[in-house]
User: Which sequence fits this backbone?
């Protein structure tokens, strides 16, 4: 099976765990098979591999997620990097070209496209295999998954199938309706459209060549920023008459808000937290080092990270976005290609961060114009290059770098350091990169 | 007026703002006259001085609070330091001896004793003056304040006066009753016992000499740890027949729990915090640098500090103590005689703290056996002494100190530093002090 996982933007609905840099799909919140916590993307990847060890998994995403994906899934997963956001048709076209031109998949083969963040069981992935096999048959150009509705939701589009058969031609599509209209649709046999579908690669390649002037993946990648924003629904689905839908009746949750996310959590507390005996329906997700104590609360979610602290009635949590938009908080932690960092102190004229480098990784060789920096090695082994000079470093070593001085650090083992930045203007933009 | 403020122990009922080192009376939570936040102790001190600029104020407390008191009230306030806790009779005897032998107050003068943390208006302090003047008359050996009850509380002891006059002899005392019994007492004209009373210094000095073998303040201080724990009520009040009570009908709140504390707050949010429009009766007290967002909550208190995060229904918050007792959290911030510190990162084998020294202050000259330390100066000017060598320091300077090396820093201006401690055993007990 070839599968393309669409990994969406930053999203603020799960603040303070998601931020401008970290998307919800990378939050380690689910107890995995081995008792370790795993993220949505790790869970889905594990589930795909359990159904089909040979599955070719490609994640279609933006540059900002590449580090997190490699950190969480390793290096073997395919990544189709969108140079900028251009809506779903260009993204799916690019991923399709990536599969044929980079991964060398035969254009006659089928691919399944699905979001990276459904909370589902193995039967869902069995169903994806079914979609792929159905697409192989070539009875239709697109084969959609139709999810059997459990309530008249206003959040989803609806698919009206021609028949109640397991696999049916699609009669028509309906936009997100009101609850009353949704109930009507459902009485007519409508299914939720979860944005999951399969097609033969050549079908979308042809569509792409019709709409975009490009030769191959690399050409498409190079001119990506010139493409018009257009959705796959609008560019392809609405114009296609040969579409089938396959029913899926298993559990399917869209974990877009704290309310739905906490429903999927197996434990009430992730991280340091205590609920007293008068709490009910309370979830704590705590990424800070300090304890949280909750007393006498009902149906409340509490989440804390270096970005901030949310305490919300679960229903209310779906209205979070405008409040988070208003916050002008600098990014307090981030995963990078080389590891991660966390801001531990901010002052006028200084910022102190904790840096963790993964073994074998290095920062870019870089300098800053407006700040001096000091590194204090907390643990691990590695070496620094400072203005061209190499030095081994280990626990307790101190390295001082004046503004303008070129520097990097290469980790041999996991390397933890405190970095003190001192200067009147401290900004992430004050960075010049150099070849080492 | 001579006044002794009894400043009690650490108290965990206002966790995470109070901890083993910082007591609730030092939390800056009230908007003062100048718009700056002030603590309970600052508020009470300001109120006393407004009623009587010449008042001799003495705070009876333990050694751990001395730094915080000087930081918040300056150097002119008297402090009677209890070398260890020995209940209220020894504490009041020591403070009384301190007033006569150290402050030189005439034993014929009166003193008013009251807790350091009532939330009251100016009329309360006028009433204290009244108590003191009544004690001066010598009609009774003790003059108590009787607070007119506003409800049949189970939390206070009751005083039954002989008459309904403004000033009356006390008929009898009653222990904390049930609400039903309290209502009975109140119908008989009972008053709350707020632990506020006045006496002539010589009265308690004589009582002290009857019960304890000592010569003067210094002798009493020296043998303090040998004294028997006994309450003032038990040792003095219950055995005394000549006791008067003066009525007080003004506002009086005991801010011992989050529930009562938040009632006294003028603003719903202290620190970084946002309440959405569906919140009601919610208070945020945030001492962290990150924002708190509260949505859809009712009658909840949220408090965050480097020690932890509390989210509690206000009623439930009075049951906090056993939960906090169970937490084995190291102290994450503290006020010291020289300034303050805050833990910003803890790892196996290292701890990083942020140190702020007040101008003109210095740490002890000290060394550690099991850890190396690095200082990085974030801002300010001062000088260090490291193994006897003096050095001026300023922003950006780095000082490294190996285990065993003696060191201190003296601040000329306010001085902020990051201190990285590295060693396999990091403990506050690993400290040897030296003369400079």
Assistant:
């Amino acid at each position: 099976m070839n599968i393309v996982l669409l990994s969406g933007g930053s999203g603020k609905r799960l603040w303070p765990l998601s931020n401008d840099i970290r998307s919800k799909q990378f939050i380690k919140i689910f107890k995995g098979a081995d008792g370790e916590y795993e993220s949505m993307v790790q869970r889905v990847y594990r589930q795909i591999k359990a159904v089909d060890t040979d599955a070719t998994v490609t994640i279609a995403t933006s540059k900002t997620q590449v580090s997190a994906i490699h950190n969480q899934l390793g290096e073997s997963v395919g990544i189709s990097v969108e140079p900028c956001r251009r809506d779903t048709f260009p993204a799916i076209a690019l991923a399709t070209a990536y599969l044929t031109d980079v991964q060398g998949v035969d254009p006659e083969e089928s691919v399944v496209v699905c979001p990276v963040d459904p909370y589902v069981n193995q039967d869902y992935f069995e169903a994806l295999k079914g979609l792929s096999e159905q697409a192989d048959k070539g009875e239709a150009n697109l084969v959609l998954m139709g999810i059997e509705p459990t309530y008249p939701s206003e959040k989803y589009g609806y698919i009206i199938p021609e028949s109640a058969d397991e696999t049916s031609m699609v009669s028509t599509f309906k936009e997100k309706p009101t609850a009353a209209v949704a109930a009507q649709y459902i009485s007519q046999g409508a299914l939720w459209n979860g944005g999951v579908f399969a097609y033969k690669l050549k079908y979308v390649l042809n569509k792409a060549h019709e709409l975009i002037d490009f030769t191959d993946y690399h050409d498409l990648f190079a001119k990506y920023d010139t493409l018009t924003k257009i959705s796959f629904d609008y560019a392809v689905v609405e114009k296609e008459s040969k579409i089938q839908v396959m029913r899926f009746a298993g559990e399917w949750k869209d974990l877009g808000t704290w309310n739905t996310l906490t429903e999927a959590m197996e434990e009430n507390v992730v991280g340091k937290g205590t609920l007293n005996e008068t709490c009910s329906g309370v979830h704590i997700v705590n990424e800070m080092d300090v304890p949280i104590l909750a007393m006498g609360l009902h149906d409340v979610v509490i989440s804390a990270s270096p970005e901030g602290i949310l305490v919300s009635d679960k229903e209310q949590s779906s209205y979070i976005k405008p409040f988070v938009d208003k916050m002008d908080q600098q990014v307090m932690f981030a995963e990078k290609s080389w590891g991660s960092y966390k801001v531990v102190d901010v002052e006028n004229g200084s910022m102190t961060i904790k840096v963790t480098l993964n073994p074998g990784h290095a920062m870019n060789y870089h300098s800053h114009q407006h700040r001096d920096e000091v590194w204090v090695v907390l643990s691990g082994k590695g070496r620094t290059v400072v203005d061209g000079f190499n030095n081994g470093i280990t626990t307790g070593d101190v390295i001082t770098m004046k503004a303008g001085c070129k520097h990097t650090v290469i980790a041999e083992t996991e390397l933890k350091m405190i970095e003190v930045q001192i200067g009147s203007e401290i900004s992430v933009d004050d960075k010049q990169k150099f070849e080492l």
Summary: The radius of gyration of chain B is 24 Å. Chain B has ten helices and 30 strands.
